[in-house]
Design a protein that fits this description.
The protein is of the alpha+beta class and 476 residues long. The protein is built from 23 helices and eleven strands. The protein has four domains: 154 residues, Beta Polymerase, domain 2 (2-Layer Sandwich); 85 residues, Hydrophobic Seed Protein, CATH 1.10.110.30; 168 residues, Hypothetical protein af1432, CATH 1.10.3210; 50 residues, no CATH class. Helix content is 54%, strand content 8%. Strands 3-4-5-2-1-6-7 form a seven-stranded mixed β-sheet. A hairpin with a 2-residue loop joins strand 4 and strand 5. The protein is elongated, with a radius of gyration of 29 Å.
Length: 476
């Protein structure tokens, strides 16, 4: 519950910070208004960390630049056309933007930039009421023309204007509703939800890069499942990630299987919990969370109903990896993230063979080699993928994975498993066999690598002898 007295005290402390005090005095001396706006005000009231400062003013961009130059160590005006000047003041990076009164054409997200004259009008054009509050400085006056404080108390997300108008102006705000719902733990106002349902197709005018950015920000929250449910329930996610609602497979009375959609959300939730336990304080692992959300998207395409009521999803790991790659490329994810996610999806079932029977040291080495740099993420994803309500089965799987991690650690200590390579390099292969660089050297290298994986370290002399024996058998 929001305690207003404590919240106001935190706003006062915010106004006393060196960067705010310095800017406030400079703008006041120059005869202009200045206010902290948006997220910093919201977060201070909620007792959340304030990580950056955004300011708004009645000063025009040229005036802003003139005012901040003497009090800053750096300035940048890349946003000048939109009224924004950036600067580094008292060691903090800040942005100061002229009051805006933009209009939209409904065809693109790009507004016709118009500068405004009042802070109330500026706040009224923002995305949600909880982000449409300002603290005027140096006078420390809270400005809240759209009822943001009341919505903070209620834990509600609501647009300052008619949501159909707000989302019609900028459809990306519909995605932000999901992100802020997860970030703040707030419910979305019913009229706002209805507007998302009605206007979901308008997301088509938003670039894939912008959509990807909001999806990443959603996944970085502590509870992205909340926002994902909103996206699925409103149908908005079908515009950019239709594989998720497709997981809600029809279940009839004869063919029983898990609810794949609910299972996937549980895996994502458990992944985040494991992340926090295994790597406390680390930044959210977006590739891992994406893999958790998408790990079963190959199931709808591979589902087969068997006689007797069984259901199979053979090779859904391989199919899902291909589908994930295609979707992530469409959303303009970078190649490294795409490669990590698709690898994790393709390999997420490997462990379950271990749980069904003992693996040799060779099999454990291959598991590590195939996982490569994704091994720790694979550990987390595989553990999170266990959502059975059968307590005995869950304990058995957890014990099996404890065992494989212990064996990996022991083998790594013995053999530096994270850098598995043959005991003979390519140059020595050529010397031992008396051959030139070419395909045969590669074949010999692969033979030695398999030998290394199967038998561990055997020593260079023994490896050379085995290489000669392999070469002789191959030649004959």
């Amino acid at each position: 519950m929001l305690n207003m007295a404590e919240g106001i005290a935190r706003l006062g402390a915010l106004a006393e910070s060196p960067v705010v005090d310095t800017l406030a005095r400079a703008f006041d001396d120059a005869g202009f208004e200045l206010a902290i706006v948006g997220g910093p005000v919201r977060d201070a009231l909620l007792d959340r960390p304030v990580n950056d400062f955004d300011f708004t003013t009645d000063a025009r961009p040229d005036d802003i630049l003139r005012i901040v130059k003497p009090i800053s160590t750096a300035q940048w005006d890349i946003g000048r056309a939109f009224g924004t000047i950036g600067a580094k003041v008292a060691g903090e990076q800040v942005e100061v933007t002229t009051y805006r009164a933009d209009s939209y054409d409904g065809v693109t997200r790009k507004p016709t930039v118009e500068f405004g004259d009042t802070i109330d009008a500026d706040l009224g054009r923002r995305d949600f009421t909880v982000n449409a509050m300002a603290l005027r400085v140096p006078g420390r006056t809270l400005i809240d023309p759209t009822g943001g404080v009341e919505d903070l108390v209620r834990g509600t997300l609501r647009t300052p204007a008619d949501p159909a108008v707000s989302f019609g102006d900028d459809p990306l705000r519909m995605l932000r509703a999901a992100r802020f719902s997860s970030q703040l733990g707030f419910d979305v106002d019913p009229a706002t939800v209805d507007a998302i349902v009605e206007l979901r197709a308008s997301l088509s005018i938003v670039s894939p890069e912008r959509i990807r950015s909001e999806l990443v920000r959603l996944l970085q929250t502590d509870d992205p499942v909340r926002g994902i449910r909103l996206l699925v329930d409103t149908g908005l996610i079908e515009q950019f990630l239709p594989e998720i609602p497709a997981l809600r497979l029809e279940v009839d009375e004869h063919h029983h299987h898990k609810d794949v959609y609910e299972h996937s959300l549980t895996v994502l939730q458990q992944t985040i919990e494991l992340e926090a336990r295994r790597h406390p304080g680390a930044a959210p692992d977006v590739p891992l969370r994406l893999a958790a959300l998408l790990h079963d998207i190959g199931k709808p395409a591979t589902r087969r109903l068997e006689k007797g009521g069984g259901v199979t999803f053979h090779h859904h790991d391989v199919k899902g990896a291909r589908m994930a790659r295609k979707r992530m490329q469409a959303l303009r994810f970078d190649s490294d993230t795409t490669a990590s996610v698709t690898q994790l999806i393709e390999q997420h079932l490997r462990f379950f063979g271990y749980a069904e029977g003992a693996w040799t040291d060779s099999a454990v080495r291959r598991y590590v080699r195939d996982a490569g740099a994704e091994l720790e993420r694979l550990h987390i994803l595989t553990r999170a993928d266990v959502t059975t309500r059968n307590v005995r089965k869950a304990r058995r799987l957890a014990a099996a994975y404890d065992d494989i991690e212990q064996r990996i650690a022991e083998l790594a200590a013995q053999e530096e498993l994270d850098a598995i390579r043959p005991e003979i390099d390519g140059n020595r292969i050529q010397e031992v066999l008396g051959i030139r660089p070419g395909r045969e050297v590669g074949e010999a290298y692969r033979f030695l690598l398999d030998l290394r994986l199967d038998e561990g370290v055997i020593g260079q002399d023994a490896a050379e002898q085995r290489l000669r024996e392999w070469w002789a058998a191959r030649s004959s």
